[in-house]
Amino acid sequence: MDWTPIWHQAAAPAFAMGFLAGKKKTVVYSVISQVSGEKLRVRFSNHYGKKPYTIGGLTVWAHGEMHTVTRDGSRVFTVPAGESCYSDELTLPVTMGEELEIRLYYASKVMDSNMIEENAVSYPGNHTADRELPPPRRERYMEQYNLYEAIPGMDQIEVFTGQPSKIIVAFGDSITAMNRWVKPLQRRLFDAYGGDYALMNAGIGGNCLLYDVPGLMGASYGEKGVSRFERDVLRFSELCGVIFALGVNDVAYYSQKTGAVISLEQYCSAVTDIVDRLHKAGVRVIAQTLPPRTGFVKKGYTREMEALRVRINGWIRDSALFDYVLDADALLRDQKNPSFTDERYHQGDHLHPNQAGGMLLAQAYDLQKLTGEV
């Protein structure tokens, strides 16, 4: 018997330093457990906070019944600054494939956050115990920036099971965080292998591998991949695979000023170091090529940036470093204009895959090559 994750998100500084998300709200979303078990617990992160934050209520709804999560026996609790902590163990029989509704009421501003659940909704006030929920409220800034509802504080949900899953981590940027290829791939793994494997999402919107983006908005893009790799990837027990999908944002910051940090040589060196560490630990590494980004709403994407993306992709394809390569670029690009994403596969911004684009990527994976199963 051991604890195995059924849901995960990588913690990043809250969008706009948490001022827009505010406080005293209930966030509701659903997770599906890939394993059966008798107990559940939740992990909270306060890596970026300078002071404790308060969770005013957390409930798990299963089969229409409410189950209250506590910490140190209290329904209202704080998470210390600079730390991670677990809730108390909740006795809750969970069946493989079961959907659980999570309701989180955060009573104070939370700095650790992410946006990976497209169907998450929020409500002013505490609605963790309501049998019927009011209409959800979506903030204007979320529509403006095409953002999901943030899930503050929580970074992992675990089930105590006799059959812990082998963990594959999707390590990427917003294209990963948006879950449009990760969730369909999770489903394919579950349909093929049951709870033998669990695919965890460690994507952060705007994230780079080599570059810490400056400014207020840059802070919400998280620490660069080489800095967060240990916390967001190596921290998993039972780690068996990593899907590496970082770099398309790095090329968008490439210039004479950043050339000492962002270059083909720096990228190859950093990726090689990461892959070597994973291989020494017996972990498979799957690489995704960098998708097209010409035409993305942000201005200033130059020929030099695009040339760097093309060179990085050539290296990924030709390198013998990886156990498997999924050519996301070849799948998503417009065949007549290969620096652009095919109009059928982006959400309207020429970069982020829509549902069809995400499904295309997920369906393209060879599950035997992904898992190493013969």
Automatic annotation (TrEMBL):
Top-rank lineage group of the source organism: Bacteria
Source species: Subdoligranulum variabile DSM 15176
Protein name stated in the entry: GDSL-like protein
InterPro entries: GDSL_Rv0518-like (IPR053140), SGNH_hydro (IPR013830), SGNH_hydro_sf (IPR036514)
Residue stretches making up the SGNH hydrolase-type esterase domain: 170-357
